[in-house]
Specification:
Elements lengths: L1 H27 L16 H10 L6 H13 L13 H36 L4 H15 L2 H15 L18 H21 L2 H15 L2 H8 L4 H29 L3 H6 L5 H10 L3 H29 L7
Membrane topology: Multi-pass membrane protein
GO biological process, one term: transmembrane transport
Family: Belongs to the binding-protein-dependent transport system permease family.
């Protein structure tokens, strides 16, 4: 297992290097720069050209890439041209918000997904299964933007149950119970929005596995021997059916930590996904490049987590 983890981490290095190179090449062909759109009567064109020369906007892409790699290896990812603070500090502040929102969303997703998947698989073809299937089709077709707007309209504007955006009420002191409860209150509506839409894959995979294992040979043998149905489901069917679900857990973690971009955007939640969109619109390439690299690392780590979970759930599996 440790050899596998080390091998994956070593493979991560060239993958990130190639991805960062591609990102820089593509960014060099994008029109405009961080100063685009800042032209007004108070800033002369000569001053803008002076700033472009100072910040190295006219340097070849390979020069800028080499400078970025050298600084990144020393822990310096540059400075955000929009927020005027170091990129590491900016991403660090947003990463904490995304982490807690992702954790809450993941919990809701798997509570709904596992519950509905087990019920749908066990009562396949029954009215409850048809109701769950209708829910999955509706959730699959529903864009997160639409559901987010509907939730804001009803639960924030009409009922006033949840705030429309942000992370905490103004004036709260960090470390207090009221501050913690306010953070949870602000996260609930975006987490529920994502948690209602994202379980579709979990439900469908779990249902399919349960239906297949219900008619498998070893299950039929257990029934012929008089094994109780509850024992068959818990020890034979569910234990094997959970393997694909466990395998997808790492990918779901990486996806959510990468930032549910549209969810964060709709609810004005200051996470990494919202920061990513803002940085693209403002042409803040230092932040964009750093976030893309971070998302790539999270994807590879998600694959590694899935492999570890798979081997932990079923010791018969050996990663080669």
């Amino acid at each position: 297992m440790w050899k596998t983890i080390l091998r994956r981490l070593l493979v991560l290095i060239p993958q990130v290097a190639v991805l960062s190179l591609l990102v820089f090449i593509l960014a060099s062909f994008m029109p405009g720069d961080a100063l685009t759109g800042k032209i007004d009567p108070n800033v002369s064109p000569e001053r803008l050209e002076e700033l472009r020369e100072k910040w190295g906007f006219y340097d070849p892409w390979y020069v800028k890439y080499g400078r970025w790699v050298t600084d990144a290896l020393s822990g310096d990812l540059g400075e955000s041209t929009s927020y005027k603070i170091p990129v590491t500090e900016l991403i660090g502040n947003r990463a904490a918000n995304t982490f807690w929102l992702s954790l809450l969303t993941l919990g809701i997703t798997y509570i709904i997904g596992i519950s509905f998947g087990v019920i749908s698989g066990r009562f396949n073809g029954k009215p409850v299964d048809k109701a769950i299937s209708f829910y999955t089709f509706l959730a699959l077709a529903m864009p997160s933007i639409v559901l987010g707007v509907i939730n804001i309209y009803f639960f924030s504007l009409k009922l006033n149950w949840f705030p429309m955006g942000g992370t905490v009420n103004v004036g709260m002191q960090p470390g207090t119970l009221s501050y913690f409860l306010s953070r949870i209150h602000h996260m609930l509506l975006p987490a529920i929005t994502g948690g209602v839409l994202y379980p579709v894959g979990v439900i469908q995979i779990l249902k399919s596995e349960i239906v297949d294992y219900k008619i498998s040979d070893f299950v039929m043998t257990a029934r012929s021997k008089g094994v109780p149905e509850k024992t068959i489901y818990t020890r034979h069917i569910l234990r094997n059916a959970f393997l694909p679900t466990a395998a997808n857990l790492g990918y779901d973690i990486a996806f959510l930590l990468g930032g549910s971009i549209f969810i964060e955007r709709i609810f004005s939640y200051p996470g990494m996904g919202n920061l990513f969109l803002d940085s693209i619109l403002r042409r803040d390439y230092a932040v964009v490049n750093a976030l893309i690299i971070l998302f790539a690392v999270l994807t590879v780590l998600g694959t590694l987590i899935s492999d570890i979970i798979m081997s932990a759930v079923d010791p018969r599996i050996r990663i080669k």
